[in-house]
Structures are given as structure tokens and as C-alpha cells.
Amino acid sequence: MVTVNQAPLTCPDNIVVETDAGEGTANVFWKETFENNTVWNKSAYVTASHTPGDEFLLGNTMVLYTFYDADGIITDSCQFCVTVVSGGMIVGCPRHAIVTSANGMFTNVTWHNPVVFSDGSPRNLSSLKNVSPGDSFEVGVTRVTYREDEDICRFSIIVKDITPPELVHCTQDILVQLQPGETSSEVNWVVPKALDYESEFVCVQSTHSPGDRFEAGLTTVTYTFSDNAGNEATCKFGVHVARADDTHPPNIVNCPESVLNYEFQEREDNYEVFWRTPTATDDLNLPIAVSSSHSNRDCFPIGSTDVTYIFTDVVGNVATCRFEVYISVKNESQERLRFKQCPCDVVKTLPSSNDSIQVLWDDPTLVGSFREISVSQTHHSGDFFKQGRTHVVYTALSVGEVIARCQFLVDVIDSSPPDVINCPSFVSIRACRGSRTANWMEPYSMDNSGNKPDIIFQSHLPRRSLFKYGNTSVTYLFRDSSGNTIACNFTVNLHRNGCNFLTPVILITFAVIIFIVLLVGLCCPCVIVPLILKNKKKDKNDTSPDTDSQKDSNSLDTDGAVGDEDIALESLDMTADVHAQDKVSYENAELA
User: Which class would CATH give 338-413?
Assistant: First the structure.
């Protein structure tokens, strides 16, 4: 048996062609490179889906050659792709992009750059405004344009603001009592305020205004703040007006029975118990202050404990709910190792001037019998705790095994707003011409928790924001890690007081006029000198206000006579550059 090695079948490469301008098809040619191949020569016949010179539509088309032997069996095949694109036309133009901005100011947007085929090869395009995928876009509509000769790809990036305005101040509930004989009362308050990240414009709508009159009962006042994008923030507070003759105490709801019995299986020092918290209502729906000796879920010792709730309305009417909590243990025959008097959870408020607070409690004691006991604790009474929730754990161990545990929570709450440092009260800037920016030492904030508060809003920037002439309100808003906020508000006054308005144009004009006068004096003394002489003569002879003398001196034009006068004449010889002084005497002479 003899084996003849055959040359491998070589197919044409994939083909990319362009159509003529405005055409939707193209004639495509290729060379059948396998004509001299052994497979081709030994095949009885060959079929082809397309042949060189065929017309192809826009897009991708697969071309297939199949080789058969004399028995009709496929011996080999050849396949390649023909791609027809529009000549000179942009391919892959993105659609309009609609995105949202979480911070209300900007967001990053990406897309695939369109391409254009040139000489059969794709080429990326650049936008006319140097906008690239992944750039940051402000809230609003940005149009992106790509151009290749006469072909244009244009789409819009629409960034929507979904962040509502930030409430800077929302009024608390207001309590007012009518005077005898009054049916309504005038109520005033500080108007709530909100700021928007995107723009200074915030539309405000309210159901009531300061100075309105309110009748007895509860009235809800609502302020609605909306920005340019339609996002809304709402401030609601109640105006509670009590009658002058209100003597009705609050109505108590859900006051427990006189005794609440709780029985437990094992003996403990304290037991956490539950009951339905009593509440109270007022006939005018006015707020009611509540104080109590104990709270639901408190810890109680074995035995009897009195619990009292006191409800007081806005005019001082009082209602009281009293009941007894009785704790008993069902089986006390076996005493196990345990911590006695494990403290309940401790809640403290962080002082405004400190970053921590000292917390005290009574240490639990270990009772019962067990061998080789060791006790550990995570914190000690008198330790200082920072803002946040901290678990305090006492653990009793015996040979590495936990026998008893006492655990409670120390919760330090930060309710104080941060402090603002270097908040100016008034900034006055004189701007005669040119830049209308202002500069100031920027305020910053410090918090008693030790964490640096964030700047969550800044209406203007020093050295960057433009100001109008007059007063402009500037606001900084700070927020600490507990969510407490504080604002720094001040006024920037831009004025022209003390400005010298001799502009460079006016100064140059004055200089040109002076230069011309000096130039004329040097070049044309015949004009300047007689004027000087005339003024000197007049000053010399005008020594008396005598009317006759004035008349004689004026007779020159009528009689032709001139009096004896010595006139000192300064003449300037421009040629010799020599100054000479001549004395000329005019005696009585007649004019011809």
C-alpha cells in the first residue's frame, strides 16, 4: 500500500468590502487559492454557495465550497466570511442614554464608540467636543456628536436628578393656649429652609404662613420643597392650640390590671418582663407628656415593685396609671453558679464638649459553688465610652469552660450637632472691575465624637464662584457620623465703594491732549506767544476800575491812537535757539 501526502486545503481569508455611496449591495471578488490543490484536482466535482463576482447584501455572508469524490462522498470543504459595510458610513451609533445621579450633581456614563470603515478596515471616531466614554456628566442634557465627512452620529446623554432637597431647618411642634374669650390665636414660627445640591433654586409651597390664626385643636402645617427636577422634600409640624378653660385630664388607654404576676422556673437576680405600654389621648388631639417610673422590658427583682405612668397635657391636667409587678420563682431547690445582680442595659447621652462619657454600674457578684473559678470582664465600671453601642461581658470560667455569663449593653448616644469653626458673619469685597469672585477663610467643623464631620453642601466656593453686586447668602452644611447637622450661614457683599473710575481709556485720552498742546506750543509759537502777551498786557494796564481809563484804552480801534507803553516782549528764535528780550517804545502815532 502506498500513501501519497496531500497538500492541505487553503481557503481564502475573510473579506470586508465597502459599498459605493448610497448603495446597499457590492460585487465581491476573490481568488480561488485551492485550484492547484490535490483535493481540488482529485475531486470529481465541487459545489460552491457563491462564486467570485457575485453580488452581496450589507452584512455578513458565509461562502462554502464542498468537494466530492466519484462516489458522491464529501472529501473536504472550505468556508470563509464576506462582510459588506456601507462605504464611508458610521456604524454602531449609540442610542440616547438616560441615567440618574445619586448625588444630584453628576454621574459617569459609558458607551461604545462608533466606527467607520475606511479601505475595508474599521476605525474608531472621536466626538467633536472631546467627550469620551466614562466621562462625568452633570445633571441635564448633553449632546454628543460624531462626524465623518457628511455622515453624522448624534445622541443625547440625559442625567436626571433624583436627590430631593436637603432640609436644613424644620420647625418643631408649637404649643399655644388661648386666652379667656379667644377663639383663635396668632402663631409665628421660623420658616423652614431647604437646600438643593444641583442649584440654588428651590420652590417652596406651604399650607400656612407665620402670623396665621389657628383655632383650638391640632393643625398640621406642611412645607413642600421641590427642585428643578421635581424632587420633593417635606417638613411637617403641628400647631397645638388649647382652650383657655381646658380642665379635662388625658384619657388613659391600656393601663394594666392592678397586679401583673410573672413566674419563672429558675432563680435569677433580675427578670426582664413585658407589658402593653399604656398611652393617653386628649379630646383636642393635643400632645401629652409622659413620665414613668419603669419601662416595658425593664429588669425586676423577685417580689413586688410598683410601676407608675403619669400623663400631663399642655395646660397641666394630669392622669395617672399605677400597677404592681410581682415576680416569683417556681423551683428554688437547686442553686447553680450564676452572676447576681447583672446590670441592665445602660443608655447615656454624650456631652457636647466631650468625645466620651464615664459610665458607672454595680459589678455583679458570682454566687453558687464550683471548683477552680476564674472571672474575666471586657470593661470596668467607671470606664469612659465613646459614641456607639458597646457590649460589656462578665464571664466565669472553670477549666476553660464557660460556667456563667453576665452581659449588658452600654449605648452612648451623640445628640449634639458638630461645632463650626471660622464661620464668618459678613464678608465685604470691593470689586471695581474685572473679577467678581470673593475669598474667605473656609469654615470647618469638629465633633465631640472625635470623627471629622462631612461637608454635605456648599453653596459657593472661595476664589471660584461668581457673585452679583450686593448681598449674597453663602451656606455650608456639615453632618457628623450620628447624622446631626449644623449650618454656617454668612453674607458676601460685593460693592464698588471707593473705586476710581478713571479707566485706562480716559487716562490715555488726557495724556494725548496734553501732548498735543505741548507739541503745538513748540512748533507754532506764533499762536501761543501772542495769546500770552495779550494776557500780560491786560494784567499790567488793568490797575484801576476807572471807567474813563477803560474808555481811553479802548479808543484804539476808533481813533487810531495808542498810549505810551513799554511792552516787554519775549521772542523765541527757533533757528538760532537763542532767547532775546527787546524793549519796544510806541510813541504817539497816527494810523495812516
Answer: mainly beta
